[in-house]
């Protein structure tokens, strides 16, 4: 079997930590089907599924065109995580098929993949509702090279959905850069003839309660019309969530 191309390899997040994410390289069942078609022809291979001791097994049979004999290789799959749509068994069948594909040598080189850890400053980590961490970015295998003799993976370059390199053991590839941080838009309020201190205090308000206290503190020393206009503008931004925070 030929080696997998970069476009045939998927990169998924296996683990998320506060220090970064671990990436796993894998293949899909569609890749196995395409390569079987390519290598043997669509009429010269077939698949079959059997449940043995409540475990799903998949077999891939390839026809020996010289003898007409069908040669089978089988393997067992692992049930997918519950997704609410009842696709656990479907995932188990797909996994069994891919494992049978490994028996035929499709993507076996993935077992030689290096440990891929993308540091936290190169990805976007978010807090979950339960207080944990999650990463919702998508990653792709940009390039991959192999040792011609051993068929082992030698160099891999991983990019994010924006095409930016986030991990590579290929020193000729661009180095990973920290993820860009989105800065909040600066608060804009009508200053008028307000003093600098008053304008800064209004812009720094985090709640409408603080804003009321600031208004009362400056009501006797600042131009009342300008003070009302600035506080009203800031109140609108606080209520819309577009504060400096």
Explain the overall architecture.
With 245 residues, the chain is α+β, with helices and mostly antiparallel strands. Among the domains are: 28-106, Double Stranded RNA Binding Domain (2-Layer Sandwich); 196-240, no CATH class. It contains five helices and eleven strands. It has helices spanning 29-40, 88-103, 196-203, 208-218, 224-240, and strands at 10-17, 20-26, 45-52, 55-63, 70-76, 116-119, 126-127, 133-134, 139-146, 153-160, 165-168. β4 and β5 (70-76) form a beta hairpin. α4 (208-218) runs antiparallel to α5 (224-240). The radius of gyration is 29 Å and the shape is elongated. The mean pLDDT is 87.
Main sheet characteristics: 6 strands, antiparallel
The tally of strands reads 11
The name CATH uses for the topology of the domain at 28-106 is Double Stranded RNA Binding Domain
Any idea what the radius of gyration is?
29 Å
Spatially, the strands of the biggest sheet line up as 6-2-1-9-10-11
Order of SSEs: EEHEEEHEEEEEEHHH
* Distance between the ends: 56 Å
**Portion in strands:** 25-35%
Give the overall average pLDDT. 87
CATH architecture descriptor of the domain at 28-106: 2-Layer Sandwich
Share in helix? 25-40%
Q: Name the CATH class of the domain at 28-106.
A: Alpha Beta
Helix count, per DSSP?
A: 5
Uncertain runs are none
Q: Which class do the helix and strand fractions yield?
A: alpha+beta
How does the overall form come out from the CA principal axes? elongated
């Amino acid at each position: 079997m030929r080696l997998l191309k970069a476009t045939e390899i998927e990169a998924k997040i296996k683990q998320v930590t506060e220090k970064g994410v671990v990436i796993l390289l894998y293949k899909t069942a569609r890749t196995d089907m395409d390569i079987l078609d390519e290598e043997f022809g669509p009429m010269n291979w077939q698949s079959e599924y059997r449940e043995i001791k409540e475990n799903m097994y998949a077999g891939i049979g390839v026809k020996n065109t010289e003898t007409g004999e069908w040669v089978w290789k089988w393997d067992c799959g692992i049930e997918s995580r519950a997704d609410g749509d009842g696709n656990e068994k479907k995932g188990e069948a797909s996994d069994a098929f891919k494992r049978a594909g490994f028996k035929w040598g499709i993507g076996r080189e993935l077992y030689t993949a290096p440990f891929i850890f993308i540091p936290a400053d190169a990805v976007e980590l978010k807090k979950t509702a339960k207080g944990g961490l999650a990463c919702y970015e998508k990653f792709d295998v940009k390039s991959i090279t192999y040792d011609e003799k051993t068929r082992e993976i030698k160099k891999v370059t991983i990019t994010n959905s924006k095409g930016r390199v986030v991990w590579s053991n290929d020193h000729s590839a661009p180095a990973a850069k920290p993820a860009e941080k989105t800065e909040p838009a600066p608060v804009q309020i009508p200053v008028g003839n307000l003093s600098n201190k008053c304008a800064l205090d209004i812009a720094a308000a985090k709640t409408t309660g603080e804003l009321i206290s600031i208004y009362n503190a400056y009501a006797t020393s600042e131009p009342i019309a300008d003070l009302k206009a600035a506080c009203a503008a800031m109140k609108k931004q606080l209520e819309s969530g577009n504060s400096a925070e």
